[in-house]
Structures are given as C-alpha cells and as structure tokens.
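Q: Got a minute? One more chain.
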Amino acid sequence: MIRRSEIRIAILEDNPDLQEELIFFLEAKGYRAWGCRSAEAFWKHLHAHPVDIVLIDIGLPGEDGFSVLEYLSGIGPYGLIVMSARGDRQDRMRGMELGADTYLVKPVNFAELILTVDRLWQLLRADVSDTKPSLSAVLTGPDADRPPLEAALRQRVLAFIEQNIHRPELSPNFIIRHFNVSRSHLYRAFASDGGLAKLLRDRRLDAAVQELTRSGGSVASIAELAHRLGFSSGNQFLRAFRNRFGMTPSQAREKGLALYAKRLAPVRPANLLRRN
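A: Always. Here it is, folded:
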C-alpha cells in the first residue's frame, strides 16, 4: 500500500499559477510538495529539502529543464517527470535520453499525474529495497563487500566502459539502455565513485593522460583526443583535465606525467584514436 505522506515531490515550474495549483492538488492528495520557479532557486532549496520525485518544466528562465534533468539523473535515484508544453518528438526523445522516467505534455491531466507519481514511487521503492549495499561498500568501495548481484553488475559495466571508452555516446543513459537496468541500481553500484557520470569522466581523463604520455605524446591533436573521448568541446576537456591533474593537456604532454600514468588503471589507449 502506498503511503503518500512519505513521498516528497519538488515542482520546478516557472508559471506561478500552475505551480501553486500543482502544490495545492498534490498536498490535498496526501503528498509532501514544494516548488521553485527557476533552476537556481531549486538547487538552493534542494540541499535543505530532499525529495524523491521531481516534476520538471523544460522552458525555465536561465538554466533550462533539460540541464536540470541531466544533472539529477547523474547524481542520484530520483524519480524524474517532465511536464512541458514542448511535445514534439525531438524534445520527448531528448528528455528520455537525459534520464526522464516519464514525459507528460501540457496541459497535463491531474488524474494521470497521480497515477504516474504512484507507479514511479513503487518502482523507486522496489529498486531501493532490492540488494542495498553495505555501509562499508559505500565508504570504501571494495567489490567484496557488495551484494553479489551489484558486484557482478559493476564489473560488467566497468568492462563495458573500458571497451567503449572512445565512443562519444558513452554516458550513464547509454549504459542504462545497454544493460537494461534502472538508474538507482546503477547509482548504488557506483556510489563510492561519486556516481557513474563522474567515474566516466575520470576514466576518460585517465585515458587521455595515457594517450598524451604514450610514446612521447604522439597524439595528433588535443582537440581530436577530446572529441574521441566524448567531450563536447575542447574547453570542457581543458577544464576537466586541469581540475583533475592540476595542469593542461599540453603541459601533460610536455612533462610526461609519468607518476600519474603509473597510478592509472589500463584503458587500452592504443585503441583510442583508431578510425572507424
């Protein structure tokens, strides 16, 4: 039986009348709900008021709903429901690829919304109750302390990442679709790594270091390496690389970064720049 008083819902909607109506309706049905009109206000409020399910409008002022959706899908097992007037196929596909559990087109039928929320909550509860990791696994990360199914999934995903690190489309959502697992299962398996999105970024940067330091740094260009490793731009790659290693890719190529390279897990760098 669903206890709606346990379900915490955030509403990210810039229309004040619709936001107020949604909060009133959801609270009348027994849920706990709060709302914000911008992503900036949402992030500030979220730290002090955790939630289970987020209703996200796409057309927000400043940071848009797609950006919020992508970030939330990478940091935790949230239930994510898009509610938007933008109902064309391209927007719907983008929303689902970025991690939405459901994409509802406005005007939304409130009875349908209730059914969607309740069913999503049941899925979230099923995921959370199934093979919870031990505290030591979260704190230290050894696979030996993980539940067997979680440890097996983790090893399969790590092997898949190693084999496909050069693919630009490699992402948490790509992995979710490939292994047909839920976000929350995947999040728990990589919680000790800071989440799968962070692990992917770090593995790509580690691969970049190996490629830059291999054979004297003979990679054709840093821009090509950034593209081959799935970074959306050279600037994004530069910032991430500098944050992780404290120097630029050019400096790494010049200095060798031998100490870093010895500490990194092998990522088969010889395959990184192969032509398809």
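A: The first helix runs from residue 16 to 28.
Q: Perfect, thanks.
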